[in-house]
Structures are given as C-alpha cells and as structure tokens.
Design brief:
171 residues; mainly beta; Elongation Factor Tu (Ef-tu), domain 3; SH3 type barrels; 2 domains; six-stranded mixed beta sheet; 13 strands; 42% strand
C-alpha cells in the first residue's frame, strides 16, 4: 500500500477523562463519520477500533478498544488516523482529498513554474495551498478558490494558478 492509498481522516488530540477515552479531531466532511471507517491505522501501522462516545468541544470523545487509562490515552496525543482510500466515498469532479494536492507542481496561466504544494491548510475560512518555489524563503499561501486556482489536473500532476498580484514576488 502506498501513501496515496491512505487518507488521513482525523487525529487524536489527547486524553479525555481518566478511563482511557481520547479526544478526536475529525477531518471528515461529516465529522461523526470517522467512526464508520474503524479500524483506523496510524503512520507506524498500528490499528485502532474506535467508537465515538459523545460530542465535545472541538471534536469527539472516543473509546479505543484495549485502551483503559489516561496515561495510555495521553501517549497517543498527536497521532494521525488513516483509512484506505477505497473505503471513502467518491468525490465530485471539483473536490479533492488534501493528499492528492500535496506534491503537485503549481504553474501560472502562462505555464511558468511557481513551485510545489507542500501542505493544504484550513483555518476555518477555506483551504489554502502552501506553495514553495525555487528561491523562495517563505511559502506563498495561495487561496484554493476557482479564481486563484482555475485548474487542477491530477493526471498531469499539476495545478494551474492565477494568483493574486504580488503573491509570488511578481509585480
């Protein structure tokens, strides 16, 4: 299985209580659906059977089979949880999993290479592509909107961007 076969659907943000429950932050479109993909995998190959016990501020409290104390739950803090791509729903043509965008080359509408997508960020107002290019000291933060990113061509491995003026140093 390759990295592209696994999709990050959430993360454990720490313990919840003293009986081994964990705090879960879901990255699913329907946040509660994360439990539907159980068992979930970690980057190091461990598998967790996860069941949501209740909604809490910022996510969910969940029970992981075999986890029964706060110390073990705390040890899982910042653990990312993955499922196989084949278990996820198909996306419409204009939606993408973040893992599909990371690593794509970004070119402007004239074909000049601007850089590569290193991360997809979302701080609540929409997705932002973090693009690193040759000679750049800091990444450019490109809004992932139709206006700024008119074309995503997964087959060709590239994104065509029409960035706001000055974003990549051009005037």
């Amino acid at each position: 299985m390759t990295d592209k076969d696994l999709i990050c659907v959430g993360a454990i943000s720490g313990a919840f209580g003293v009986r081994g429950e964990v705090r879960i932050k879901s990255f699913c479109a329907d946040p509660a659906a994360i439990a539907d993909y159980s068992p979930l995998m970690t980057e190091d190959g461990r598998q967790f059977d996860l069941g949501i016990t209740r909604a809490i501020k910022g996510g969910f409290a969940a029970k992981i089979v075999g986890l029964d104390n706060k110390e073990d739950a705390d040890a899982l803090r910042n653990t990312r949880l993955y499922t196989e791509r084949s278990r996820l729903p198909a996306l419409p043509d204009d939606e993408y999993y973040h893992s599909d965008l990371i690593g794509l080359e970004v070119v402007d509408t004239g074909g000049a290479v601007l850089g590569k997508v290193k991360a997809v960020l979302n701080h609540g107002a929409g997705d932002i592509l973090e693009v690193f290019g040759k000679g750049m000291k800091e990444p450019a933060l490109l809004p992932f909107t139709r206006e700024a990113v008119p074309t995503v061509d997964l087959a060709a491995g590239r994104i065509v961007a029409d960035p706001p003026a000055g974003l990549f140093g051009e005037e």
